[in-house]
Amino acid sequence: MESHHPWSTFIVLPLCGILLFNVSMNGATTTSALPVRLVGGRTPCEGRVEVLYQHSWDTVCDDDWSATDANVVCHQLGCGSAISAPCCAAFGQGNGSVLMDNVGCTGSESYLSYCPHNGWHSANCGHGEDASVVCKALPVRLVGGRTPCEGRVEVLYQHYWDTVCDDHWSVRDANVVCRQLGCGSPISSPCCAAFGQGNGSILMDNVQCNGSESSLSYCPYNGFHSHNCGHHEDASVVCQASGTAMVTMSAETFAMNSVDSQSAGGSDLITADKNVSAYYGGVAVLECIYSGSREVNSVKWANQSSGDVKAERSTGEDHLPDARIKFVESNGKRDGSIIIYPIHLGDIGTYTCSYDVQGEKPMEKIVILSLIPYPGLPIPLKIAIPILVIGLFLLIPGIVFFLYKKGYLSILAKC
Ligand SMILES: *[C@@H]1O[C@H](CO)[C@@H](O)[C@H](O)[C@H]1NC(C)=O
Ligand SMILES: *[C@@H]1O[C@H](CO)[C@@H](O)[C@H](O)[C@H]1NC(C)=O
Ligand SMILES: *[C@@H]1O[C@H](CO)[C@@H](O)[C@H](O)[C@H]1NC(C)=O
Ligand SMILES: *[C@@H]1O[C@H](CO)[C@@H](O)[C@H](O)[C@H]1NC(C)=O
Ligand SMILES: *[C@@H]1O[C@H](CO)[C@@H](O)[C@H](O)[C@H]1NC(C)=O
What we know:
Elements: H1 7-29, E1 36-40, E2 46-53, E3 56-60, H2 67-76, E4 82-84, E5 98-100, E6 132-135, E7 140-144, E8 150-157, E9 160-164, H3 171-181, E10 186-188, E11 202-204, E12 236-239, E13 270-272, E14 275-279, E15 284-286, E16 288-290, E17 296-303, E18 309-314, E19 318-319, E20 325-327, E21 338-340, E22 349-357, E23 363-372, H4 381-406, H5 409-412
Parallel strand pairs: 3-5, 9-11, 14-23
Antiparallel strand pairs: 1-2, 2-3, 2-6, 4-6, 7-8, 8-9, 8-12, 10-12, 13-16, 15-21, 17-18, 17-22, 18-19, 20-21, 22-23
The protein binds 2-acetamido-2-deoxy-beta-D-glucopyranose (NAG) (5 copies).
InterPro entries: Ig-like_dom, Ig-like_dom_sf, Ig-like_fold, Ig_V-set, SRCR, SRCR-like_dom_sf
Organism: Eptatretus burgeri (Inshore hagfish)
Domain SRCR: 36-136, 140-240
């Protein structure tokens, strides 16, 4: 004991920690994280569910197949959340074997193969019962513009923001993008990387929307990543950025407009979204519009609990202490809606929007900004913790043995 340098403890302890952590994390990633794909749909984000198991794409039976299970599949594929979980081979029958039956995901799994089920190939189903999913449209964002409602079009596909080529790009396509983002009508559909070139891959080419689609990914286009373009042909849009509420998203996040347009407590002359949800790094528009006919003296947004002013517009000039928070430029003082971009964690919370209107009592609305969690990226604790514990139990005897063999056992006493 006495012969050891004291610093050996400081080296051995962290090494033990790093070793244990690495081994358990490797354990976690090898726990049957099986790839899935969707076959037979119009986009890679809908179709029959197939799971790659021992070099074969096998199907999933629709017994107990639910929206929760479908959500796990959509998130695993980077396709946002699920819209529906069709049964009965809605996208045609598969030809592999039936791999999973009675799937019962809890919703927090990052892979379908982590979900409870009967056991591999233990199924009492035919291919007439193949399970399918339809995922939400692919999220879209605009990059490089002065507002979140103009810029280069980028589409989130499998966790990467990819660009769109300007071949056949038209104002009809821009219409779909603007609508999808809640940015009103399009003003123009610039070609040729008008807002700078993207750096992801080029996802869509020859996009030809008819204008009424609810999402860009529902428009006709060449298959994903099938194009003859360079980034100097990146498509862009400029939207009107109306005062309507809008929620979009940014890096590694998924679109899910979930604005609750019920008005919260306060004056009936103000319309506001009660609960706005956004992704970390994304955009939120907190709407607050005065619909009365009197003169507006000022409109002010503040942190409800601390009273800190976030944005204020009165006669004179705007007071905007945080560069990420701006007023939506539309109807002057009557529209006091603000844009926050990019959203930080500290932005979640409750805001008050208050109007000072000539001849009216002060009017106020409460708006709650909440975050939508990132889907499916981290390994669920439910899986990671048991593996970590098992890893520790297996590893400690191994280390003891190794150190014993090497004659370093006395150091281990401190480990
Ligand atoms: C099985 O289905 C896949 C895709 O659904 C297809 O690519 C493959 O050719 C089919 N194989 C047979 C033997 O039918
Ligand atoms: C790619 O572009 C995005 C936004 O346009 C930027 O955030 C990111 O840092 C860029 N990445 C590289 C590798 O240039
Ligand atoms: C536009 O396309 C969508 C989806 O492809 C279709 O449902 C709709 O009927 C089309 N509308 C027009 C006006 O062609
Ligand atoms: C607001 O919306 C988020 C996400 O949609 C939800 O988790 C939260 O409970 C809602 N809060 C209120 C107060 O309604
Ligand atoms: C509001 O103020 C409280 C107390 O200072 C702080 O904890 C919270 O993060 C603030 N919220 C926002 C949205 O600024």
